[in-house]
Design goal:
The complex is a heterodimer of chains A (181) and B (432). Chain A is built from seven helices and four strands. By secondary structure, chain A is of the alpha+beta class. In chain B, helix 2 packs across helix 4. Chain B is globular, with a radius of gyration of 23 Å. The two termini of chain B are 30 Å apart. The chains are: A alpha+beta (181), B mainly beta (432).
C-alpha cells in the first residue's frame, strides 16, 4: 500500500517536472546539471546509454576493443581484500590493459567509483572507497594513463551490488568500478 | 491512510523536496527496566466527535516506551475519573498505582482545543502537576508528547524527550542500480514521518542544527558527495560544500553558524570547519591518514573525530582551531568510529568493531566504557537531547532498522519501517 502511494508520488513528481519545473530549476541552481536527473529512476540507464553509444560509434578501433568480451578491457570491476586498497595480483593484467588503452586514447576519459562493504561506519567507509578509487588511479597513471583522463568518486557502502550480510556479498561489494565516458 | 503531499520542486530543485506522510515506524519494546513506576492514565473526557488522536493513549505509549513506567492497561482501570474531585484515591491504592493522570479536552471558540490534565500522587492524595494546554487538531499528538514530558520531569526530575524529533535516511532498493533514497523527519515515537528530500542517488549523514530548524546532509545528486543545508520547515536548501573528492560528514557547531566537515580535495580526507554564511573554511587536520566523522563538544571546546593514523580507526580529540590531536580510545579494540558527545559533554557514544560492530559509551572522565548493544552491524549512534537514550541503526529481519537503548543499557526498543530500510538516525534537539 505504502509503496503504491510512493510510486504514485514519483509518477506525479515526474509529471510535474515534465510540466515545466525544469526551466525554473535550472535558473535557480545555476550551472549544475542535477535538474534533469532529479527524481527519474533512469539514472543508471543514462550511464548505460552513454557507454553503449561510445561503443556503437565505431569510429575508432578502440571502441571495438573495449567491446570485445575476450579482452581484459571487458573487465570493469576490480575487487579488493578486506580493509585493503592494494590492487590484487589477479587484477594486474586488467589494470595494465586499461592503462594501455587510456594511453593510446588520450581523448578517452573514465570515472573510477570506489566502494566498500557495509561493515563499520558509513563515513569511514566513504573514505575507504575513495582510497580504493585513488589506488586504482595511481596504478593506471603509473602504467601510462594521464591523471586528467580519470575522475574518481567514492560511494562508500551506499551502493552495494550484493545485499547479503556475509563474506560472499562483502567481497563483491569491496570494489572499484571502471566506467568509460 | 492519511497523507499529505506538498511539493516545493519548482522552488528549490528537481530533487523532490517534498512533504509526504509516511506510515509510522513500528515500535517494539524489546527490553524494559525492572522497578518501573506503576502509573494509570484515564482516557481524557471529550464530548464531541471522536478526535484523530487519543491523547491518553499517546501519553501511555510514550511513558511505556521510556521503560521507566509500568502503565496500567486501559481495560484494567478501576474507575474513569476526569477531575481530582472525582478521584477516590483508595481505588488506585488498592490496584497498586503510585500515580494517576486524569484530564479532559474542551473545544474552544476559535475551533481549537483546550487540553487539561492533572498528575496525581495516589498515596499522598494530592496533585503534583496540573496544566491547561491550548491545542489544535494538527498538533494534538505534540500536545500529548508535551504532557508526557511534564509527567516524566515531575516524577523523575529529569527532562523528557518525547516532543523531540528524529531525522533518518530510508532506502527503497529496487535492484543494484536503482534505489530511492529519502531523508525523513518523524516524531521521536516514529509517527508523523515526513519526507523532506527524495533522490535516486545516495543521501547520507543527516545532522541537526542546534535550534532544530535546519538539517545538514550529504547528497550524491551531482555524482559526487556534496553537503547541503536545508530549512526543515520551508524545504529551501543550499549547497554549502562541494568540489573534487569527498565532501561529507557535516556537524553543526554549537552556535549553529559553522559546520565541521570532511573534505579530501587535497588527496585524503581531512577535517575542515566551514562558516555557513561566508563559506570561509579552515583546515583542522593535515595528516595523510583518513580523518573524518567530526563531532563538536556541546560547549564548543573540542572536536572529536575518527582517524586511522595509528593503523586502524580510533577516536581522537583536538581543539576546534585544529592543531595537536590526542587519541581518546584505548583498550577498546582496533576499530572505533563515529563518536559523538552526550548532551552534558561527559560521555562519547561510538561504533566499536571486533567480532561485530556494536554501540559503546565511553566515560571521558574515568575512561570506563560500556557495551550497549549485542548485534553484529550496529552503527550511527545518536544521543537523545536529554541524554537518557541513544538511537542507532541495526540489522533487522527485513534490512536495517532503527533501535534505541538507554544509556545504562537496560531499556531497548526497535523502530522498524514497514517498507524499505531505515538508517542513520539523528536525534533532534529539544523543541523551543
Amino acid at each position: 500500500m505504502k509503496r503504491a502511494i510512493l510510486n504514485g508520488f514519483v509518477v506525479l513528481f515526474v509529471a510535474l517536472l515534465a510540466a515545466g519545473c525544469s526551466n525554473l530549476n535550472k535558473k535557480q541552481t545555476g550551472s549544475t546539471t542535477v535538474e534533469s536527473r532529479g527524481i527519474s529512476s533512469g539514472e543508471m540507464s543514462d550511464i548505460d546509454a552513454a557507454r553503449s553509444s561510445g561503443i556503437a560509434d565505431g569510429a575508432s578501433a578502440g571502441a571495438a576493443e573495449l567491446n570485445d568480451p575476450n579482452s581484459p578491457l571487458s573487465v570493469r570491476v576490480i575487487y579488493f581484500d578486506y580493509d585493503s586498497s592494494n590492487i590484487r595480483e589477479d587484477f594486474q593484467s586488467v589494470v595494465e590493459a586499461h592503462a594501455a588503452y587510456l594511453a593510446a586514447h588520450p581523448e578517452t576519459t573514465i570515472t573510477l567509483e570506489g566502494h566498500a562493504d557495509e561493515r563499520g561506519s558509513r563515513e569511514y567507509n566513504l573514505a575507504l572507497g575513495e582510497r580504493r578509487a585513488l589506488a586504482l588511479r595511481r596504478q593506471l597513471v603509473l602504467l601510462g594513463a594521464t591523471a586528467g583522463q580519470i575522475r574518481t568518486v567514492s560511494y562508500g557502502e551506499e551502493r552495494p551490488v550484493a545485499e547479503g550480510h556475509d563474506e560472499q556479498s562483502y567481497s563483491l561489494n569491496r570494489r572499484a568500478e571502471i566506467i568509460y565516458q | 491512510m492519511k497523507f499529505l503531499i506538498t511539493l516545493w520542486c519548482c522552488l528549490v530543485s528537481t530533487l523532490a523536496v517534498a512533504q509526504i506522510g509516511g506510515g509510522p515506524l513500528t515500535i517494539r519494546i524489546t527490553q524494559g527496566v525492572e522497578g518501573a513506576l506503576p502509573l494509570a492514565i484515564v482516557p481524557f473526557e471529550w464530548a464531541g466527535q471522536p478526535l484523530p488522536q487519543d491523547i491518553a493513549q499517546v501519553i501511555a505509549n510514550d511513558l511505556t516506551r521510556s521503560g521507566r513506567f509500568n502503565v496500567m492497561p486501559m481495560t484494567d482501570l478501576p474507575a474513569r475519573p476526569n477531575d481530582i474531585a472525582q478521584v477516590n484515591f483508595k481505588d488506585w491504592r488498592t490496584v497498586g498505582m503510585d500515580n494517576l493522570v486524569v484530564g479532559r479536552i474542551t473545544a474552544t471558540s476559535d475551533g481549537g482545543y483546550l487540553v487539561e490534565f492533572r498528575l496525581l500522587d495516589v498515596f499522598g492524595g494530592k496533585q503534583l502537576a496540573g496544566f491547561q494546554i491550548p491545542s489544535h487538531v494538527s498538533n494534538l499528538r505534540l500536545t500529548a508528547h508535551h504532557i508526557s514530558d511534564i509527567i516524566y520531569k515531575t516524577l523523575l526530575n529529569t527532562d523528557g524527550a518525547f516532543s523531540t524529533r528524529i531525522a533518518y535516511v530510508t532506502v527503497d532498493r529496487k535492484d543494484a542500480k536503482n534505489s530511492l533514497y529519502r531523508l525523513q523527519i518523524a516524531d521521536a515515537d516514529g509517527y508523523d514521518a515526513k519526507t523532506i528530500l527524495e533522490s535516486p542517488q545516495p543521501l547520507m549523514s543527516p545532522a541537526w542544527s542546534p535550534d532544530g530548524n535546519r538539517l545538514a546532509y550529504v547528497s550524491f545528486e551531482e555524482r559526487n558527495s556534496a553537503i547541503y543545508v536545508q530549512d526543515v520547515r520551508t524545504g529551501a536548501r543550499e549547497k554549502v560544500v562541494s568540489g573534487v573528492g569527498i565532501n561529507s560528514s557535516p556537524a553543526f557547531s554549537p552556535d549553529g553558524g559553522r559546520l565541521a566537515v570532511t573534505r579530501s580535495m587535497e588527496g585524503n580526507p581531512d577535517i575542515y570547519v566551514v562558516d555557513i554564511a561566508s563559506r570561509q573554511q579552515r583546515r583542522l587536520t593535515t595528516h595523510e591518514a583518513i580523518d573524518t566523522e567530526a563531532a563538536w563538544a556541546p560547549d564548543g571546546s573540542a572536536i572529536v573525530f575518527t582517524s586511522d593514523r595509528g593503523g586502524g580507526p580510533q577516536i581522537y580529540r583536538m581543539s576546534p582551531q585544529g592543531g595537536d590531536a590526542k587519541r581518546v580510545t584505548f583498550n577498546l579494540g582496533n576499530y572505533n568510529s563515529r563518536a559523538s558527545y552526550s548532551p552534558d559533554g561527559k560521555k562519547l557514544v561510538m561504533v566499536n568493531g571486533g567480532s561485530g560492530f556494536r554501540i559503546v559509551v565511553l566515560d571521558l572522565a574515568t575512561g570506563g566504557s560500556r557495551v550497549l548493544t549485542g548485534s553484529s552491524l550496529d552503527e550511527s549512534p545518536s544521543f537523545a537531547p536529554n541524554g537518557s537514550m541513544i538511537i542507532y541503526a541495526t540489522m533487522g529481519g527485513r534490512g536495517t532498522e532503527l533501535a534505541a537503548v538507554s544509556v545504562d543499557g537496560t531499556v531497548k526498543q526497535r523502530l522498524a519501517l514497514q517498507v524499505g530500510q531505515v538508517r542513520e538516525p539523528a536525534w533532534g534537539p529539544f523543541r523551543k
